[in-house]
Design brief:
The complex is a heterodimer of chains A (111) and B (405). Helix content of chain A is 51%, strand content 11%. With 111 residues, chain A is mainly alpha-helical. Chain A has one domain: Winged helix-like DNA-binding domain superfamily/Winged helix DNA-binding domain (Arc Repressor Mutant, subunit A), CATH 1.10.10.10. In chain A, helix 1 packs across helix 2 and helix 1 crosses helix 4. With 405 residues, chain B is mostly beta strands. Chain B has a domain of 122 residues. Helices cover 0% and strands 70% of the residues of chain B. Chain B has a 45-stranded parallel beta sheet that branches. Chain B starts with a strand and ends in a 9-residue tail after the last strand. Classes of the chains: A mainly alpha (111), B mainly beta (405). Chains A and B meet through helix 1, helix 2 and helix 4 of A and strand 28 and strand 31 of B.
């Protein structure tokens, strides 16, 4: 599953809802429009019944779209979903930088 | 073609199987020498093979298949709603596994397509690796394209492209084309790369050498860094020297050593350079400090620049209300309205209205209305506004004292 739960120092933190949405979106994106619910379930490490709730919510918010592929639904990320991911990862990056504290970001070598 | 069947729950001993093999749920196969199946080895649920397996195709459905030895499937390995665990080496062409695939020995295939996790304890060689969730490998990864929806955590790499949704952590090596990760990128050893695009953070712990770098959040580099273009939206630091074409920082950035570019340095936020700074053009909107700065083209400072040895450029513009600590050396030097500098040297130096400088040394000097200067030395001309404030009249000297830098 994606590394949403990883903290700044590599330790795990509890996955929040925003992490889970990002996890699902990343796995769906990986399949380039052909994401089946079972494959997303394996990739996201989430049971199918729980995943369906997330997928329904993401569809309602316009972050995912669904199309019939060989008679079964297949999912793809929308531009809005990609926007969510861009913002999510950028914020996570900033938070990680802030959590490190000022002493960690200053190089020790000076000339 | 005949099919040899192993009933569910039974334990049998097999060696050569002339046709296909069908193994029932919870069956166990003891192996006499090597289990060699001429056709398809199909497993209907949990099963165990207590030795090496060779077959044309391996198929598993709804369970976990454990193979205590190696697997060589000359055509394919497919697992539907199933996991395959291999204690030895693994060799095939097309691999498509829904849940998970773990391999203890060296692994090789044309293509690995895994829905859940791919876990290798040795090396892996493939043209393409695609994993929906986590891809973890202890040894070297050799591949053309690697793509994971979740994370990639591998040893040394020799790949063309690497793409992951959440995390990429690797031991070092070469990524010929691009690395792209939505979240976090970590390279523990030296890395050579075509391009690096990280939405969150990038951590090159032993430095790196590559093309363009685009980091949305935080970039940390443990050693030296060579790049073509570097664009960091948030925070960053480079412990050693940085060398490239252009450098663009939106937030706060520290370089421990020198920063040398062939084109532009653009600082929107705060940047400090422990060593010397050099390039073609400089644009500082925020604050920049360096030991020295030398630019062959134009340097524009809108915020605050601080140097120990000086800032030198063909054309140097200190914008309105900007501030410079340390000598400024032109070419042409322009201090706009209310800009403040210490020592200013140039072919031509112009102080705008209410600009301030301690000392101006130039061939041609122009001092605007309300501007303040303690000392003006010139060799060709001095044009001083009557409302300017000079501590002493401009003094003509020829030759001029030597300029810094």
């Amino acid at each position: 599953m994606p590394s949403g739960p990883d903290g700044a120092n590599g330790t795990s933190r509890r996955r929040e809802v925003s992490d889970l949405y990002a996890t699902v979106l990343e796995v769906v994106k990986h399949y380039h429009g052909a994401a089946r619910i079972t494959r997303v379930s394996y990739g996201a490490g989430m049971p199918v019944d729980r995943l369906r709730n997330f997928v329904e919510r993401l569809l309602a918010l316009g972050l995912l779209k669904s199309e019939e592929l060989d008679g079964r639904p297949a999912y793809d990320i929308t531009a809005r979903g990609q926007e969510y991911l861009d913002s999510y990862w950028k914020l996570r990056g900033y938070l990680e930088g802030l959590e490190r504290g000022p002493s960690d970001e200053r190089p020790s070598r000076r000339r | 073609m005949t099919t040899t069947e192993v009933p569910k729950g039974r334990t049998v001993t097999l060696g050569d199987v002339p046709g296909d093999l069908r193994v029932g749920k919870n069956a166990r196969i003891e192996v006499s020498g090597r289990l060699t199946v001429a056709g398809v080895a199909r497993f209907d649920g949990n099963a165990e093979v207590r030795g090496d397996l060779t077959c044309r195709a391996l198929e598993a459905d709804d369970g976990t298949v454990r193979i205590a030895g190696s697997v060589h499937a000359t055509e394919s390995v497919r697992a539907h709603d199933a996991t395959i665990e291999v204690e030895g080496g693994f060799r095939s062409v097309h691999v498509d596994v829904d849940r998970g695939l773990s391999i203890r020995g060296p692994a090789e295939a044309e293509e690995f397509e895994v829905g859940g996790y791919l876990d290798g304890r040795s090396t892996l060689t493939a043209a393409k690796v695609s994993v929906g969730g986590k891809f973890r490998l202890a040894g070297k990864l050799t591949a053309r394209a690697v793509d994971a929806g979740g994370s990639v955590d591998v040893g040394e790499v020799e790949v063309d492209s690497l793409d992951a949704g959440g995390l990429i952590r690797l031991g070092g090596g070469t990524v010929k084309n691009g690395v792209k990760v939505g979240g976090r990128f970590v390279a523990r050893g030296p890395l050579s790369f075509g391009s690096l695009d990280a939405g969150g953070t990038a951590d090159l712990q032993a430095g790196g050498k590559g093309g363009s770098i685009d980091v949305g959040g935080v970039l940390s580099v443990g050693g030296d860094l060579t790049f073509s273009t570097l664009d960091v939206g948030g925070l960053g630091s480079i412990h050693g020297d940085a060398t490239g074409e252009s450098f663009d920082v939106g937030g706060k950035f520290d370089v421990g050593g020198a920063l040398r570019v062939t084109r532009s340095v653009d600082v929107g936020g705060f940047m400090s350079v422990g060593g010397d700074l050099a390039g073609e053009s400089l644009d500082v909107g925020g604050m920049l400090s360096a030991r020295s700065g030398i630019f062959t083209g134009t340097a524009r400072v809108g915020g605050h620049i601080r140097t120990h040895a000086g800032l030198k450029a063909s054309r140097l513009v200190l914008r309105a209300k900007a501030r410079a600590s340390g000598p400024l050396i032109g070419g042409t030097v322009e201090l706009e309205h209310r800009a403040r500098a210490e020592e200013v040297y140039g072919e031509s130096v112009e102080l705008g209205d209410r600009a301030e400088a301690n000392r101006v040394v130039a061939k041609r000097v122009r001092v605007g209305r309300g501007a303040s200067v303690s000392e003006v030395l010139y060799s060709e001309s001095a044009d001083v506004d009557p409302e300017a404030h000079l501590s002493a009249p401009p003094r003509r000297v020829d030759p001029l004292p030597p300029f810094p830098l």
